[in-house]
Specification:
The protein is α+β, with helices and mostly antiparallel strands. It has a single domain, classed as VirB8 protein (Nuclear Transport Factor 2, Chain: A, Roll). It has three helices and four strands; from the N terminus they run H-H-H-E-E-E-E. A hairpin with a 2-residue loop joins strand 3 and strand 4. The longest helix is centred in the N-terminal third of the chain and has 53 residues.
């Protein structure tokens, strides 16, 4: 625009060809390519997000099961002559599956032996680690120390025990489904495996 309010004329050089306008097919190809890129990015983002959520759930399960295993191992390896029935009830309350069945069947005999020999034990967990996570089952390895006294040996003696435990989530609670002390044969499953 010039100072007098009129527009300047623009000269078009006819020697320069105008850029061709994209055809309808070219525009569709570009839109299609952009769509493919957007869908691919959404798929990759969704897959990575799903893997992150799964890994977080596995880590959370491992952490909860490990804490429950540490607590249960202390319960399992600690007995007090003055609270023997509570000790057994606590063990059964923290157990499930085959371990609960086996422990329940042998508890009376074990209880009698502990009372007759005036055995007291105190278990502590020295170290523990998650071996594997498989859905609602978490395998945990524990290294434990157990102080033992009895009528025959009133001076405390220390025993070191390695324990392998399968913790199973039942409802919202982690319970011991399998317990194996080092050197014991692995229990046979009833399923024929």
């Amino acid at each position: 625009m010039t100072g007098n309010g009129k527009y300047d004329a623009v000269e078009i050089d006819s020697a320069e060809p105008l850029a061709p306008r994209p055809t309808s097919l070219a525009r569709r190809s570009v839109v299609f390519a952009i769509g493919v890129v957007v869908i691919s990015l959404a798929a990759v983002t969704g897959t990575l997000g799903w893997q992150f959520v799964r890994q977080h759930a596995r880590d959370d399960a491992a952490s909860q099961a490990l804490a429950a295993a540490r607590s249960f191992a202390v319960t399992l390896t600690s007995t007090d002559q003055n609270a023997i029935d509570k000790n057994f009830a606590d063990v059964l309350g923290g157990a499930t599956g085959d371990f609960k069945d086996i422990y329940g069947k042998t508890a009376a005999q074990l209880r009698k032996m502990l009372i007759d020999n005036k055995v007291n034990t105190t278990g502590t967990v020295d170290d523990a680690a998650v071996k594997s996570v498989n859905g609602n089952d978490v395998d945990v390895l524990l290294s434990m120390k157990q102080e033992v006294t009895s009528a025959a040996v009133p001076q405390p003696r220390t025993e070191f025990v390695s324990v392998s435990m399968t913790m199973r989530k039942v409802g919202s609670t982690w319970l011991a489904a399998e317990v194996q002390m080092a050197g014991q044969p692995k229990p046979q499953h009833r399923g024929g495996l």
